[in-house]
Amino acid sequence: MKKLSARRRHPLAAVVVLLIALAATGGLFTAFAPAAPAKADETAQTLTIEEGKKLYAVGCASCHGTGGQGTTDGPSLVGVGAAAVDFQVGTGRMPAQQPGAQVPKKPVVYSQAQIDQLAAFVASLGAGPEIPTENAYNPEGADIAEGGELFRTNCAQCHNFTGKGGALSEGKYAPSLEGVDPKHIYEAMQTGPQNMPSFPDTTLSEENKKDIIAYLEAVNSDDTVEPGGLSLGGLGPVSEGLFGWVFGLGTLIAVAVWVAARTAKAKKS
Amino acid sequence: MSSQEIPEENLPAEQGDAHGAVKVADEKNPFADPGLPPHEHRIQDIDERAAKRSERTVALLFTVSMLSTIAFIAAYVAIPVDKAIYVWPIGHISALNFALGMTLGLALFCIGAGAVHWARTLMSDVEIADERHPIEASPEVRAQVHADFKQGAAESVIGRRKLIRHTMLGALAMVPLAGVVLLRDLGPLPGTSLRHTTWAKGKKLVNMNTMEPLRPSDVAVGSLTFAMPDGLNEHDHDFQKNIAKDALMIIRLQPGDIKDKRELEWSHEGIVAYSKICTHVGCPISLYEQQTHHALCPCHQSTFDLADGGRVIFGPAGHALPQLRITVGEDGYLEAVSDFEEPVGPAFWERG
């Protein structure tokens, strides 16, 4: 101790004391501080789940079972995760209007707060993909060309080259991706709604998903340049052929008939 | 202009003056040839002012066409290729394409419209009747041709000099062989290349999105992943040839859902690898429905049940989709056990 007190007037003594004090405060903070907010978070989370459970009992339990275990009318929701709920309810697909080959998109019936509560409840049934945060799906600065390549490899077979959608078997279809919220596109890739296969982060990384969303924004926004104009639905030779045959040839035939039928006589008989 | 404004002296005195008068129906033969209806004059035939006006209209159309062609060339030179404009109701389109299409369309349309207007108002308007002639030549002409042919044959001594006749027929019969030999050059025959792919024992399955080898834990139930064999490089000379046979669809089923015993044996923990190439005409099929486990081909709607050995359940495909037998290697990555057991893709003559 004598040695220590002998050096207390050393020019660096103040610095050393300051460093020790900082380390002590930091250590104490990490030891105690986060505990309190975490507790508050947990109670808020429990409340959300409680609210979600009530909503679930009213809107979902008749098909998916009271505990989310699934019935003959609806699949089990254990392990589908919050992202699946946010997609299905957030696009109006759930609650389903009527049974059929495919549940279509329709006006949303729940508020985003209610959707979050439902999602929290379903997530509490079993771990699954979480609702992505904004920076996970925001296409800002993503590689559009790479996204195009990934889209053609993984998505174009069902959704068409620019996401216009297409037919599947027995009345099912791949919906158009035009004007779909990037968050919902991200969630669909992650969870694989209805008959769409899923593309988990292990096989299609978060970066890849962002690129795909950026590509869709580039080819489907209001500012997208159609070099020739009149995309005719962008479906390819079917709609273009129909237009050519019906409107193109039809107009030519009508003009030919008009030219041959109308006469320019001085006196009409 | 209506007929009232036409000067009286220019009108024909009677319709009978005009070319082609009506024949009066005969009482004995009510179905007699009625002949042509009476000719009616056009305004332009009797009123020189109207004719002048038509002439000016035609000239105007042709002039507009000329100006449009000049505008086309000007647009081609002046408008940058990447300039986009907004045109209601078409949307954002390339300014160059729009200008070229409009000017060339107008130039062609005005030529057509001018020509039609010219023909209808100024060219001769007189009805013409022509008799149809039989297609057959007259008997004299036919007799003459026969006689000439016989004389030619006799003069060529083809009937008497049999050696010449036979060698000539032989030469004519042999000439087409040259074509057959040339067509043979389209080869070489595929040999065994249709029976084998790049897949072999120990080849790792590489994810086509990330180009990384796949672990079983990467493949979730209900997911779809496309894979190719390790070592295939997009920049290689024969990449397209190989990927056309090697491409795989990787899906994961609950092992209990797999109906086919061999499929279960060839899978790894429910992960199955199927060829992506349709067995009908070789389109890439990957319209996979994760609830029904059906894969659909977009070309001719062949549908395969991937939970039942890739069996064909609809469409023109003749063979089940080939499955690749997979396992996990020592380093924990998915790998092939061997090549496909049967040829992938469409049938061929010697496929068996």
What is the end-to-end distance of chain A? 133 Å
Largest sheet of chain B: 5 strands, antiparallel
β-strand amount of chain A = under 5%
Low-confidence stretches of chain B: 13-21
Helix fraction of chain A, binned, reads 40-55%
Strand content of chain B: 5-15%
Tally of separate domains of chain B: 2
Unreliable stretches of chain A (pLDDT < 50, length at least 5) are none
> In terms of quaternary structure, what is this?
heterodimer
Structural class designation of chain B = alpha+beta
| Most residues in contact, chain pair and counts | A-B, 38 and 55 residues
- State the strand order across the main sheet of chain A: 1-2
Write down the overall mean pLDDT of chain A: 85
Number of strands of chain B: 13
Strand order across the largest sheet of chain B: 3-4-5-6-11
User: What is the CA-based Rg of chain A, rounded?
Assistant: 30 Å
* Structural class label of chain A: mainly alpha
Using the alpha-carbon principal axes, give the shape of chain A.
elongated
- The rounded distance between the terminal residues' Cα atoms of chain B is 81 Å
Helix content of chain B: 25-40%
Search tags:
heterodimer; A: 269 residues; mainly alpha; 12 helices; B: 352 residues; alpha+beta; 5-stranded antiparallel β-sheet; 8 helices
Topology:
The complex is a heterodimer of chains A (269) and B (352).
Chain A: H1 2-6, H2 13-32, H3 35-59, H4 61-64, H5 81-90, H6 112-125, H7 134-137, H8 144-154, H9 156-159, E1 166-167, E2 173-174, H10 182-191, H11 206-220, H12 237-261
Antiparallel strand pairs in A: 1-2
Chain B: H1 43-46, H2 48-78, E1 84-87, E2 91-94, H3 95-121, H4 139-155, H5 162-174, H6 176-184, E3 205-207, E4 224-229, H7 239-246, E5 248-252, H8 261-266, E6 271-275, E7 287-289, E8 294-296, E9 303-305, E10 311-314, E11 323-324, E12 326-328, E13 334-336
Antiparallel strand pairs in B: 1-2, 3-4, 4-5, 5-6, 6-11, 7-8, 8-9, 9-10, 12-13
Helix pairs in contact in B: 2-3
